[in-house]
Amino acid sequence: MNTPTPSDASASASPAVDEGRPSITPDDRPSNRIIPSVHTGTGPCIELRRLHRFFGKTKAVNDISFSVDPGHVFGYIGPNGAGKTTSMRILATLDLPSYGDAFVDGFSVVNDPEYVRRRLGFMPDSFGTYRDVNCREYLDFFARAYGLSGDDRLRRLRWVLSFTGTEGMAEKPIRGLSKGMKQRLCLGRALIHDPAVLILDEPAAGLDPRARIQLRRMIRELADRGKTILISSHILTELAEICDTVGIIEQGQLLATGSVEQIQHQQASHRDLKIRILQRADQAARWLEPLDQVDSVVVDGELVRFEFHGDIREQADLVAKLCGEGFLVAEIESHKKSLEDVFLQVTEGLVQ
């Protein structure tokens, strides 16, 4: 079988054609049995390279590039209409880029879509089904569509029903399921062929708090099993709890990427500081007030509270100068920005 290697597929990004995806000859079609459950290469498991998607004059995705390492969870943060779903649909081979390319396990979504699909499970933000289909039939249909058969298919069905907690609902029609159970079933559909990569578009939308907690636990367990996960949400606190890396997207542009801690430090140009000064707090406050990086100084006994404009290194320099002036700094507390604070700061000027 003439199977392209990931290194072949990782050629430089090129504009997509409007006529549709390039076809793969019958001899090149992947075997139904070859479905890797973990990353098979040495580079990133997900990679977007200068990805663009235009709808007329609208730039839904505007020059986005990022990568996700194997076994990591990448959180895609942005409001509705920011470009999250469009770029995720391109990764899932449901749409073509206007320019640029995306890669899954080293294979191009433009040139090698069939190989991408066998390495990827996609959970859309909504899904439909036939009215009277039950959960087992629904999952079995997709297992067969991915070429699973015999004991392999039955084994995957049992595992997915157990992992998603839907085994008790296996014979029930999907139409009678709660929103939370439907989301579990949709996750099961994405997992049925044991893919290396999962693309989850707003999986927690509409779920109650208990269901969201359970979903977060499942996602972390999947990452611990070696799955690489791209998950989108506008519920920022949830992504902060489960993601190794996050990307903030607005109006089709990727504005910041990194770990939550890194982005918070990068954007921490304004933080609230509380310093405990022994004996001479009033004098320390008067020393601080003229500084350009300091605002709103308040003294409360031994505590001096103020707004500080600067990064973490500049904060350390300030404390060192206080000590150098002879003030006895007993304690310092810095209020770290939440992910919501960072998001609002990063997107300021774009969101109207």
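Second entry:
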Amino acid sequence: MSTPVPPTNDPQDREIDDVVNAHSRRRPGWVIPAAVLAVLALLAALLFGLTGRSETTDVDAAAPAGTGPDAQAAAGTARTLDQIKADGTIKIGVFSDKAPFGSVDANGTYVGYDIVYAERIAKDLGVKLELVPVEAASRVEFLTSAKVDAILANFTVTPERAAKVDFAKPYMKVSLGAVSPTGAKITDIKQLQGKKTIVVKGTTAETYLTKEHPELELLSFEQYTEATNALLDGRGAAWVTDNTEALAFSLQNDGKFTTGITTLGPTDTIAAAVQKGNTSLRTWLDEELVTLGKENFFHTAFDKTLKPAYGDAAKADDLVVEGGKA
């Protein structure tokens, strides 16, 4: 007859003891093989281990969040101006495929009009700059989820967007335009009826055409490179986008494309944006614009980044806003 296993103070061992002793009481005279004991021990250990891991995970999930940009992003809470300075880094969302405003050159370096502004912001804050690539449709989400502190991605101010994010004062003005093959130039929006019109998702062009010209068939893409490739491949009759982009694309393609519509819809402004309620950062950005306006910062940025793309097709005063005064 088998002898019951002596009691132990270890909880895991007590579980094994209970199983073994129960078998001993039910089957007098039967000795439990060592292999069976090993299996029972393994099962008990697994049971105990799963319970322990579950409890640990719950504790970790309930632990208070840390500090710094990653912790703030995890919580979906924007960093204030003081927190950005304390952390020593500012995260700014920019385009990586939208020359001449924000793109990556052959050396892997961010260049463009918005990039020059982002670099100056970081310099004047006395912090390091971390550029985060965004797409047009993800700009609002990157702010609401605190993945970035600010957006400088050719962000047109609209009432719909202003309900979700806070805009600083403007640094640029723009309207829509349409670029098309020179041999099949589109000079009037009515010419696009029955044809495909290329747009980028989440842009004012998409919103405007959907609302004001629902009769048009839109061919929508997530990225600007996808839209330009579609135009180059002849998948659409025209690409409707900001007139600044349309003009730049025309000039960069050796006369093969023409911006036949240079002004479509209302004239809008472009501004930096922050998470809704981040008053300290927005106020600082407004004050920064006043400071930069005194040195004609954006005219200098235009000469450096936009003039090489536009040549004589656009003047600085047609696009640039100094001191936040549109």
